[in-house]
């Protein structure tokens, strides 16, 4: 039963090829993603300076004075407060569309006044991204008309891996769409919440997500300047090259610091800035920056991130933009590293049948610990992560086979007659 070294080498090589293929598929792929999350949690390096992105948090204290759902007047206050610091880009994750049907006549008139105020301050904003959401049509047999939106045309790779929707489920009213860019906030089901999609598909066309659209406005680019190579990278002109997987997702580095101010702090700082008095917050971080407003209250924190805790979608988007602006991208080791691991384990397994079972177990445990330490150090130094499922599966395979085979016995030599 596979007692020779050559047989063990061949089996280890076949097992390595099988694990190499399965490690790029679900559900095995999720194990490697959790491994990267663990590396990010334990391998903390000196953070870079805060990038020019600020999150205006709608927290629990804010909702006490401004109950949810917000009216156009509440969002108008945000625009008025943020525009005092001359930001480059303003972004709102929520969908600016209000239903008048259930309102009383007096409330409808008041809502119309608030919407005019919001429209006026929106026109004063230099660049604005408004949240929208893709979905399915109410009648699957009848597709709604194709809505105008920005399309990414330079795309290579297997588009079937990118999540697709057939309709725009929710979007801002036309009054606001004409003065802003749309960014889709969909989070594909089953994806790692330590990553965000940069591109999605709408009726076969590739469209930018909320994060990508905000980054494009920050770099003063358009969707025509985007080049997507699924499974490799997404290039924003010649400005930045972002690593993505075959689903068009970018892994977020939560070690990049974020600037977070509460909604009340923003309004107070705007008043102090207008009065030319010292602000209670470092308001200089809002100048020429990307300013996002999103909910961060306890009810909105529905996303679980290993090593970080529960966060809201808006916090995830802000961290993704901070990752792009800081250039702290998490990259996977090239595929030749995987083949090197397979080759090394296969060659070493040639001598496994001749080694004691206890020695094989000890060597395998020591090798895995050394590998984990080296992987953590490499991630700390260069944000490059090594696979975990492949070496773990290979060593486990070799150990189990050695435990299942009898000890090797050398052939007795023939006596020599003198």
Structure description:
With 418 residues, this protein is an alpha/beta fold. Helices cover 40% and strands 18% of the residues. The chain is built from twelve helices and 20 strands. The strands form six sheets. Strands 1, 2, 3, 6, 7, 15 and 16 form a seven-stranded mixed sheet that branches. Strands 4-11-12-13 form a four-stranded mixed sheet, with no helix packed on it. Strands 5-9-10 form a three-stranded mixed sheet. It is elongated, with a radius of gyration of 27 Å. It starts with a helix and ends in a 14-residue tail after the last helix. 36% of the residues are buried. The model has no long low-confidence stretch (mean pLDDT 88).
Amino-to-carboxy terminus distance: 38 Å
Largest sheet: 7 strands, mixed
Coarse structural class: alpha/beta
| Mean pLDDT reading | 88
Shape: elongated
Radius of gyration: 27 Å
Strand residue percentage: 15-25%
Low-confidence stretches: none
Number of helices: 12
Helix content: 25-40%
Tell how many strands the DSSP assignment holds. 20
Comma- or semicolon-separated keywords:
418 residues; 7-stranded mixed sheet; 12 helices
Q: What is the element layout, followed by pairings?
A:
Elements (H helix, E strand, L loop, with lengths): L4 H18 L5 H15 L10 E6 L1 H6 L6 H12 L5 E4 L12 H20 L3 E8 L18 E3 L7 E2 L1 E4 L3 H4 L3 E4 L10 E3 L1 E4 L2 E4 L1 H9 L7 E4 L3 E4 L3 E4 L5 E3 L7 E4 H12 L15 E6 L7 E3 L3 E3 L1 H14 L4 E2 L2 H14 L8 H26 L1 E2 L3 H16 L14
Parallel strand pairs: 1-15, 1-16, 2-3, 2-16, 3-7, 4-11, 5-9, 19-20
Antiparallel strand pairs: 3-6, 8-14, 9-10, 11-12, 12-13, 17-18
Helix pairs in contact: 1-10, 1-12, 4-5, 4-8, 7-9, 10-12, 11-12
């Amino acid at each position: 039963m596979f007692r020779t070294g050559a047989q063990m080498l061949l089996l280890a090589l076949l097992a390595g090829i099988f694990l190499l293929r399965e490690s790029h598929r679900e559900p095995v792929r999720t194990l490697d993603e959790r491994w990267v999350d663990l590396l990010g949690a334990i391998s903390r390096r000196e953070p870079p300076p805060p990038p020019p992105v600020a999150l205006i948090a709608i927290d629990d204290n804010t909702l006490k004075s401004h109950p949810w759902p917000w009216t156009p007047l509440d969002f108008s206050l945000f625009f008025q407060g943020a525009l005092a610091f001359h930001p480059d880009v303003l972004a709102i994750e929520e969908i600016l569309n209000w239903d008048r049907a259930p309102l009383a006549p007096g409330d409808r008139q008041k809502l119309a006044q608030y919407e005019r105020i919001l429209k006026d301050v929106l026109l004063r904003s230099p660049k604005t991204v408004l949240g929208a959401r893709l979905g399915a049509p109410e009648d699957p047999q009848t597709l709604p008309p194709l809505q105008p939106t920005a399309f990414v045309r330079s795309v290579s790779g297997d588009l079937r891996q990118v999540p697709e929707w057939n309709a725009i489920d929710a979007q801002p009213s036309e009054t606001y769409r004409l003065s802003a860019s749309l960014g889709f906030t969909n989070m594909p089901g089953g994806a790692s919440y330590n990553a965000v999609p940069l591109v999605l598909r709408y009726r076969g066309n590739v469209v930018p997500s909320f994060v990508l659209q905000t980054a494009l406005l920050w770099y003063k680019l358009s969707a025509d300047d985007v080049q997507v190579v699924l499974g490799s990278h997404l290039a924003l002109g010649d400005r930045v090259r972002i690593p993505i997987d075959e689903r068009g997702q970018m892994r977020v580095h939560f070690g990049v610091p974020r600037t977070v101010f509460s909604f009340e702090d923003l309004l107070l700082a705007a008043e102090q800035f207008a009065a030319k008095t010292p602000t209670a917050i470092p308001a200089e971080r809002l100048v020429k920056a990307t300013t996002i407003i999103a909910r961060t209250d306890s009810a909105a924190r529905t996303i679980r991130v290993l090593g970080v805790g529960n966060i809201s979608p808006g916090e995830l988007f802000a961290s993704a933009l901070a990752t792009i602006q800081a250039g702290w991208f998490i990259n996977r080791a090239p595929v030749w590293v995987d083949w090197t691991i397979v080759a090394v384990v296969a060659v070493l397994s040639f001598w496994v049948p001749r080694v004691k079972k206890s020695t094989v177990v000890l060597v395998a445990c020591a090798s895995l610990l050394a590998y984990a330490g080296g992987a953590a150090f490499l991630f700390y130094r260069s944000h490059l992560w090594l696979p975990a499922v492949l070496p773990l599966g290979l060593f486990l395979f070799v150990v189990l086979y050695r435990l299942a085979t009898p000890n090797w016995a050398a052939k007795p030599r023939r006596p020599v007659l003198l």
